[in-house]
Known about the structure:
Chain A has about 45 residues and is mainly α. Chain A is about 65% helix and about 0% strand. Chain B has about 450 residues and is mainly α. At the A-B interface, helix 1 and helix 2 of A face helix 1, helix 7, helix 8 and helix 12 of B.
Amino acid sequence: MPNDSSPSPQPDRRPLIAFAWLWVGAPLAYGLYELVQKATQLFTG
Amino acid sequence: MSPPVAPPDWSRWLVPPAALSVHLSIGQAYAWSVFKPPLESALGLSGTQSALPFQLAIVMLGLSAAFGGTLVERNGPRWAMTVALVCFSSGFLISALGAAVEQYWLIVLGYGFVGGIGLGIGYISPVSTLIKWFPDRPGMATGIAIMGFGGGALIASPWSAQMLESFGSDSSGIALAFLVHGLSYAVFMTLGVLLVRVPRGERPVTGGPSAVEGVQVSARSAVRTPQFWCLWVVLCMNVTAGIGILEKAAPMIKDFFADTSTPVSASAAAGFVALLSAANMAGRIGWSSTSDLIGRKNVYRVYLGVGALMYALIALIGDSSKPLFVLCALVILSFYGGGFATIPAYLKDLFGAYQVGAIHGRLLTAWSTAGVLGPLIVNWIADRQEEAGRHGSSLYTLSLFIMIGLLAVGFVANELVRPVHARHHIPAQREAADAERQQPESAA
């Protein structure tokens, strides 16, 4: 017999957390890559 | 719009990306210089004219953060992020129209005025919410968001340049670039609007501290305390000193080593400027997180005290060693970023989380002031020194010593910060108001 008083299962937030961090992390990684490319000119330029 | 309350199972690690989606977008403001040369050639503008949209945007940032802070606290972070999204994106769309019909005033109005309101409201929108979600690590939490403002320019600078290269640098190419910026930032910021939530209870971390425990001071009372003005001076001096280096970084490193056997080329100077941006960003998250461990007052002692020492090293022996010059400049820029990112947590320590976003907004007028002071001091003095026939590192010696003096003033202001007097606390104000209400009754 099912127990009606048992709490409903909590949704797993981990995929949403991963998506959200990827959303902001990907453009930031692009910006950092471009920055590193430019910064190396200090040592090679 | 009522503040969106988080469901019981909501993760607090969803709030920093929400904040970042806004700060990474509005940080584009620091990459405005990419649009300057194409605008100058397409619309026949002078350098001063093409800087107008950026300057107005920064003024509007300060004004809207100062005057809109209370509204942000009242309506919550989702309302604030929506306003930021609408204003910032509309600013680009109005600018696109302006470029398309070659009416420059529309670009000034769109990017500068409307977009600038988006900058100010967006900048303060996640501060109070992050502090409430991370009462155990407020420095780290606000450091992540404010690091995003520095990161926004890193993304926008190459992205906008590539777009102008593809679309062309004439007025229709600029219009198309503005249009793509407006639409892209609207989509990107939507994540923040959808994800942001205020914590359900006062204690979002099990067993952790509460964000609304202890001293609570309203924004209106905070500006009447000496603590607020001490922090205003601290921020203003720290930012002025940082801008002093940032403003003249490329010519400065070239002038310092012009008469040596290893002069610095233009591309190496550009690399130096990029490295300073990285230090600025790293300082925002690194030093702000450190403040959670060593305390806010101590971390500002480091920014202002060690910062002054770094300036002294550059002024006295900076031209004798390139690595020493670069290292000192990187440390100064990391303190500059750290100063920005740690201030919300310092405000929370002194005034509580109650209206910390609004208080932070009012304090940002120090940034606007420093934005005028820093470049003015360095450029004016460098011009006078050049007129006096000086060259090389001696062009900057006086400016550097003035920066040391400013940092010393900031250091003293930080030392003067004491806990806020109980008469400014919220319960004390309520008691006073109650007493006032009771007086006429008892008199009657």
